[in-house]
Amino acid sequence: MFIVEDEKIIELIPFLKERGLRITPQRILILQTIISIKGHPTVEDIHQKLPYISLATIYNNVKLFLSLHILKELPYGNGLSKYELANQPEHYHILCESCGEIIDFNYPNLKEIEHVACKLTSFKIHTHQMEVYGLCPTCQIQ
Amino acid sequence: MFIVEDEKIIELIPFLKERGLRITPQRILILQTIISIKGHPTVEDIHQKLPYISLATIYNNVKLFLSLHILKELPYGNGLSKYELANQPEHYHILCESCGEIIDFNYPNLKEIEHVACKLTSFKIHTHQMEVYGLCPTCQIQ
DNA sequence: ATCGCTGCAAATACTTTGCAATGGG
DNA sequence: CCCATTGCAAAGTATTTGCAGCGAT
Question: Please, are residues B129 and A131 in contact by the beta-carbon 8 Å criterion?
Fold first, then answer.
């Protein structure tokens, strides 16, 4: 574990406590695992790293973290959702259509599109996401 | 049924035939239903309009149409995917976080982001999608 | 000591599959 | 007539739920 990762956990503990939620070993481990994986793990990925924690507990806590906006859901994976930390710098995703891998990339924030969408649809805008689809370097070869 | 809709079906029939696929009443009805709904139906929506067609047949054909790029999958819906016709003018989607409705809106094509993503990740780019999230006018009131 | 959380097992939801019967080409 | 397709039922996969017992506060 690195310092940056520990800092993230240390910020999250009081955040949970303030909301009357208990700091269980399972919650700490699930969060640590998501932080240390760095990518965009599925529930199954988390369970493989923490096989002694019940799948139901992982599902319940991922759902809890989503409702607290600690996690973001990436529903593009073939049926199974992937998750990432919510408090990250703004970025977009590129997805491999062959192997399903998701990579982050930076691009100037497209906030302008939110104004246009608001004018055209009268929605109250909250956020936006963008995904670029293609073939990753590995899958291009094969 | 309107002329534009019939034209779409009429284009699709030879497209299927050329590929050695059979023109079954079920396929015609499923396509007509998706065209006439205009929105972004789920498999369940299609089945409600065509209850006498087996769910399995609807799933199988939706999958077939996806592989033929007649349909596009919109995986944002809570677990269940929504579908739209693929041969539509370029547009983006705005999603209501409360009721799940998806509305199309126009915005100048963001092809530039594909070049940037390509340079940064070495992916071979195919396409991109963008979703804006917010509250629809109806859900803002409630 | 309380009551929120965990873990199990069962239930649910969505989708795919095996296979006999059907019907489009 | 042949074989792709349909429809059913069963299986598969992902997720949620009920509840007894545990353990964080």
Answer: yes
Smallest CA–C1' distance to C7, residue: A54
Task: Determine the pLDDT at residue B4.
Answer: 66
Supply the CATH number for residue A25's domain.
1.10.10.10
Q: If contacts are CB pairs under 8 Å, which of residues 38-77 in chain A contact chain B?
A: 75-76
Q: Is residue A126 part of a domain?
A: yes
User: How far: B40 CA to C22 C1' (Å)?
Assistant: 32
B-chain residues near A118 (CB < 8 A): 134
In a domain, B43, yes or no: yes
- The string of pLDDT tens digits covering residues A101-136 is 999 999 999 999 999 999 999 999 999 999 999 999
Q: Would you say A118 is a known binding-site residue?
A: no
Number of H helices, E strands in chain B: 6, 5
Torsions phi, psi of A86, nearest 5? Answer: -80, -30
As averages over each run of 10 residues, the pLDDT of chain B (142 residues) reads: 72 95 98 96 97 98 97 85 94 93 95 97 96 95 87
Residue B2 lies in a domain: no
Closest CA relative to residue B75, chosen from A7, A133, A32, A21: A133
pLDDT of res. A2: 53
Q: Are residues B64 and B25 in the same domain?
A: yes
